[in-house]
């Protein structure tokens, strides 16, 4: 991720008060480009499946906020598929309700189908992916289908937000589902903030999305986060696999959470402290200038 460029954007979006209200429109210069003046047209996707609790809650909450929401999401659970897209000659798509499309593929396939067919001729104002069951911080974000759906939108030039709900321990189903309500309350505030900043421009700068992780707060999960932090993706993997030889050509795989001290200012630090982590992201793998300088130094004088 290009932390230097995108963190300045996040600091702008999350300036105090922490999304509790809207700053005067004159505080920030407008972004350039078209933006919807009426209800936002939102393509809603996820990786847990089109009928998962998180996406259903998101549909209801965003619709209640006045947005025009259409679900285009995987038919089945696609957690952990990352940015994968299928390359087969056919794709099964169901249309069980007027505002719901279920795609038998990955989140990336769902977004691609939604942009090409459901929103053909006029792209949505925003793609929202989630809210996901469990966190997508650190290395989990790299392999997340929820984040992958947002990345697919960014690749097509559409602003995108990935939403996830969960703490750093193994998620409890009941409390995590309960915590999806404050997650979506925050998402509505965040979208309102983006609109107020954008004026008549795009919701986000071209190629930039937001990966939002809301912690589980309180014994029942319904508590409010202690604040909002503009963060970056922690470098640690979080999950540590162990392989045991079964002796028959197969290996038994177990996975445990291996949480190391969080980097200061990272998504792991924020969620661990009960704060909402908002990490800007982009859809490519380009590093910053310092990393390119290191690569140039390593290649100096090297010839084929």
Mean pLDDT over all positions: 88
SS-based class: alpha/beta
Low-confidence stretches: 1-6, 20-36
Order of helices and strands: HEHEEEHEHHEHEEEEHEH
CATH top level is Alpha Beta
Please name the CATH topology: Stationary-phase Survival Protein Sure Homolog, Chain: A
Could you name the CATH homologous superfamily?
Survival protein SurE-like phosphatase/nucleotidase
What's the helical proportion of residues? 25-40%
Q: How many distinct domains?
A: 1
Our count of helices gives 8
The largest pleated sheet is described as: 9 strands, mixed
End-to-end Cα distance, whole Å, is 30 Å
Shape verdict: globular
Widest sheet, order of strands: 3-4-2-1-5-6-7-11-8
Range of strand content: 15-25%
Structure description:
- With 304 residues, the chain is α/β, with parallel strands linked by helices.
- The chain has a single domain (3-299), classed as Survival protein SurE-like phosphatase/nucleotidase (Stationary-phase Survival Protein Sure Homolog, Chain: A, 3-Layer(aba) Sandwich), CATH 3.40.1210.
- The protein is built from eight helices and eleven strands.
- The two termini are 30 Å apart.
Descriptors for this entry?
disordered N terminus; 304 residues; Stationary-phase Survival Protein Sure Homolog, Chain: A; 9-stranded mixed sheet; 31% helix; alpha/beta; 8 helices
Q: What is the compact description of this entry?
A:
The protein has a nine-stranded mixed sheet with strand order 3-4-2-1-5-6-7-11-8. A two-stranded antiparallel ribbon has the order 9-10.
